[in-house]
Specification:
homotetramer; alpha/beta; Rossmann fold; 8 helices; 30% strand
């Protein structure tokens, strides 16, 4: 069922929920889901409301127009999303396919409510897989001499595909600061460790060396500071002394794909609100 | 901080949240937490709101009085709880102490926000432990000939202690239907299996025989139908072929105490709303 | 590295490990992994040993020939597997593809050490997916009138493909007793509940109705008694009151595919030994 | 049942298991459990064997005497433990009691197979709890000026109590290098984070600041390098954006006590073998 999803953040205070839900009720809007959070440290308030589109006497544009008055009074930062407008996800990959296979499968069976117009890679390996799904595959040359040009191409491809979200599904290249800035809150990475442990390269090797008893993965928004962006989701899996680095890689693949899928799914449903360098997730 | 916790259930419809939050906002009430759920199958709506007591211009009684008008209009079943009024928990135990030790520890360190005026047992074994905590311990004779009398004594002790909740912390006696009825939604049991598997006696032996790879525990409200009441919380733990029944018992003890503590904690905070033979848990 | 995997079961007694490892040591065999289990209830002993093939002065056949003398003396049931001889897995599917996609991906990237010569289905839907992987796809007509013929075809296809293991990856048809018998310990099913809860049809609907707080999946050997065969692996995932049956299905898919993959992986590595209606899993 | 537990570590090679199990078999020893691990990176071999004491024709001393010949030939580092000789655990605490309550309960009900002759603290708060269990409680003055004297007292108390293991159950004082050295492999700490994340002070505050979605705890042997000793056990628990630091502390207490209890339990059963700065855990 088509829904309008309203997300709001503002300085906390009394009457915000009453005002917002009062506005919706005044137009007989049927609220199917609602969640809120007040951050005591920052004094910020976060809210997410799903309204049945057909319960309203007008469409998304008129909702937005009418709501903007109230929003101005209450100093709300707000966003309205129509679930009929599927978000466009551009996936960046390298050679490893476990996250990509998982995302494509979830997209095919409807678990991920989005369009995937394009997959970009610095290697040719995954072309056949992507094209079998009827999705365009573009290879970009990331040779050492032309990183800047390569990222310019990526940005151009993303914009050309009218991308809403860029997903780094084990892309293994560091996004330059200007792109982090330009697409702030729209680039999602899966890091193959339980951050902040083992940031940077070869986290499974680091985990093996340290002798940890669980490994993990972290889905986060990409910021200019490497592996330090707001965390959306994490999970861990148990290992033991008999597991080699190769087995850590195998066990980790399962955690990575699940964590990325959950994080992306929540992002697509407007369930993730950035709160400084942390996130509010209305899962 | 003192809060008023309002829980509401009613037939789902538009404007309920707006009406309720509007009422609170009209009196400048500061909402610190709110959650809601609409059950699509039953058409019932559930809501829980926490308001800062000091933000309101009146106390809990006047809140209730003023709110009852609105509640009547909207056909709300509602309950208002003042967090300064600690709930009184009466614990029933047999010989096993792991759940009791855990509850008493959580009560002592403030994790469980309640009073524990009384522990009742059919055995003398745990008297010293209970009394060391400064809590009254009463032993009731549950001899085969006098089960009815014994339960009448339990009810009388519970009422005498002005009990709000009766917790069966591995009590190992089946509560008779009349008490289940009389204290509906106020008796909480911990069953040592992942229900509905292994209902009844000796669940760990049953689990061992069946060769399951995880064991579990279930915290539920007690109803006249054995081990079939609304489930509040469950969890599982991994076992393997080398684990004997004794080891299942040991591993299970840890799951039992955690699951019971979580279930009771949520009940004490008005986070559990019964929805037929299921529950809504605003955890 | 090529290894010989020896699995042994026999009445428990002193000196078995010494005899078996002594035999291997006498030929300078390098043991890379070993595990054992004595079942106190049944008095059975179980052992699994991995020997580096190149450390032995002879091949698998001569190992078997020489070992059979010792095995006879000790009344061992034993099995010797050469990791260079990949097991042949025939997958049976219906319309749901999440387990199949996962198995095929793990087969492609080497996580599952086997050949998959054939996928059989009662529906045409998954043909393209299977054939893209270069695997033969055969559709069998399971019309109500011809179940027996259909299963005869399945058996014939399985034998024709020289299948070692038959995997029911959400096949949704009940295997007849004669096939269960014929391929005892070689048919692996994934059931979409945490058995013994919710055996039979529509387990997620049953779970929803009961109001459980975790759902699960069970990988087990198929026997003539429905959903009652020896359990290889299980796992659970958390749900809450807001999850509809569709969301249970979605969450369950992830548990199912992981549990099936682990169970099959262990079976392929000779890590699962049947012990009556239970299993010993040297994971 | 009384058992002798033999743990062995040596350079890996062929025939070690055969030699050791052959020795036991030659004396009709009944092996109830055995596990082994070869570390491919270091070339070290680790083995743990449990023999039924009554199956042997001699006691632990004669076993040791006879075994030492073989051990010398094979260059084994080895240790023999008689389960009738309970290990003596000295617990160091500060003011927080959740780990101590848990350890004392597990000791009382037999889950932890050890004696606890003494609890030492830098504060008086937990005296009554300890003494109720019939255990000696000693308070040591850790004033800023006399850290060295205080630790000398601790060592003296530990030695006087004939301690085998020193458990830091949220002791909150840094053990000086000389004691780390003197009791190497015998001091077990519970750190309240998922190491290597959030080493040092106030890990829950660090975790909150970073916005992680799981918190954890780590049980490890204490070495001179703070929070960097060989890890015995770890676990994590889920948190969300609504959890304050106080709630992290509450959730963390449950993880801490479980992880510490598992780690100590394995240590007491000779299941933990140190392998450089990592551990082999035959759980």
């Amino acid at each position: 069922m088509r829904r309008l999803v309203l997300t709001v953040t503002c300085p906390d205070g009394t009457g915000i929920v009453a005002a917002v839900t009062g506005f919706i009720a005044a137009h007989d809007g049927w609220v199917v889901e609602a969640a809120q959070h007040g951050d005591l440290n920052t004094g910020r308030f976060f809210q997410r409301i799903e309204v049945l589109a057909d319960s309203l006497p007008f469409g998304v544009d008129e909702f937005a127009e009418r709501f903007s008055g109230l929003a101005g009074e209450l100093e709300l930062d707000w966003h309205l999303h129509d679930t009929d407008q599927k978000r466009r996800v551009v996936v960046l990959v390298s050679k490893e396919d476990h996250c990509l296979v998982d995302l494509l499968h979830r997209w095919r069976n409807g678990d991920l409510d989005c369009d995937i117009p394009l997959v970009v890679s610095n290697h040719p390996d995954l072309r056949a897989l992507v094209e079998w799904h009827g999705i365009e595959f573009r290879q970009v040359d990331f040779g050492a001499e032309r990183k800047a040009e390569a990222f310019a191409e990526v940005a151009s491809l993303f914009d050309g595909a009218q991308g809403d979200v860029m997903v780094l599904a084990r892309f293994m290249q560091i996004i330059p600061p200007d792109l982090c800035e330009r697409y702030a809150g729209r680039i999602i990475n899966i890091h193959h460790s339980f951050l902040p442990s083992f940031a940077g390269a070869r986290p499974y090797h680091q985990a093996f060396e340290r002798g940890v008893k669980l490994i993990g993965a972290t889905c986060h928004y990409v910021t200019a500071e490497l592996d330090a962006g707001p965390i959306i989701e994490q999970d861990t899996a148990r290992i033991d002394h008999a597991d080699t680095v190769d087995e850590l890689l195998r066990i980790g693949r399962e955690v990575e794909r699940s964590v990325l899928a959950r994080g992306l799914r929540w992002h697509l449903a407007d369930r993730v609100l950035v709160n400084g360098h942390r996130t509010v997730v209305f899962a």
